[in-house]
Amino acid sequence: MRVSMTLVMFVCMFSAFAQEPEAYFDFQIAKHLKAYKTQSEAAILNDDAQYAEVLFDSLFDSHLKNSYIADITLKKVNGGRVKTSKINNSFLLITKSAWEQIDDKEIEAVNRLAKMYKGQIDVVVLFWSSRLIAKQRGRGYSSLVDVTYVDERENNANHIIAPFKHSFGAPACFFISEDKKLLKIDRKFTANLSTDDPKLALESAHQQIKMILFDDKQTSAGILTTIN
């Protein structure tokens, strides 16, 4: 009888864990962003950029990392739509503002990444602007990069997509796994890619992609298998 009761308790405990709800990015942002912003703004006012970074790392590691990205539908500048649930690979979501000046070196680097990881990683660039501005700013990207836009003046940017802008602003890069989990947020993506040394710029992005594709494991040569 005691064995039977123990077995029943074990099954109940297992079921409770199995039914634990999945954490979604938009929900976690709504729940934790206000407190983070209050503390972060105070740190910046006190000229303590290092502590502001610590606060961001704590927010991400404790509440955002491995949270799920709800299905998002984005309009392409050339027609059609990108539906994230239909993306079969891991992907990068690179956000851009309407006023940001995009360096040609950055566009070249993103195109190179899209070509190098074709079939493994998809690249989506999202402009927070009108279709016309997004099309003008995004014309340098290759056909391997999906250039999309959200025009907030249309009042149809719902609670799922809005956190990608209103949480950490733009530009930023969200690294999202094949099973739609958020792995990393790079809030300095533009700075990383606009460096004078293209090799260093790409290496920064490669290191993040490596974590998606290879679980942070290097080859015996100590470099990514996809880099020639």
Protein architecture, described:
This protein is of the alpha/beta class and 228 residues long. The chain has a domain at 69-214: Glutaredoxin (3-Layer(aba) Sandwich), CATH 3.40.30.10. Helices cover 44% and strands 17% of the residues. The chain has eight helices and seven strands; from the N terminus they run αααβββαβαβαββαα. A seven-stranded mixed sheet has the order 2-1-5-4-3-6-7. The longest helix is centred in the first third of the chain and has 21 residues, at 25-45. The termini are far apart. Residues 5-19 and 216-228 have low confidence and may be disordered.
Q: What's the end-to-end separation, in Å?
A: 64 Å
**CATH superfamily annotation of the domain at 69-214:** Glutaredoxin
Radius of gyration: 20 Å
What spatial form do the alpha-carbon principal axes imply? globular
Helix tally? 8
Strand % is 15-25%
Estimated helix fraction = 40-55%
State the secondary-structure class. Answer: alpha/beta
Which sheet architecture does the biggest sheet show?
A: 7 strands, mixed
CATH hierarchy class name of the domain at 69-214: Alpha Beta
Which second-level CATH architecture of the domain at 69-214 applies? Answer: 3-Layer(aba) Sandwich
- Main-sheet strand order equals 2-1-5-4-3-6-7
- Work out the number of β strands: 7
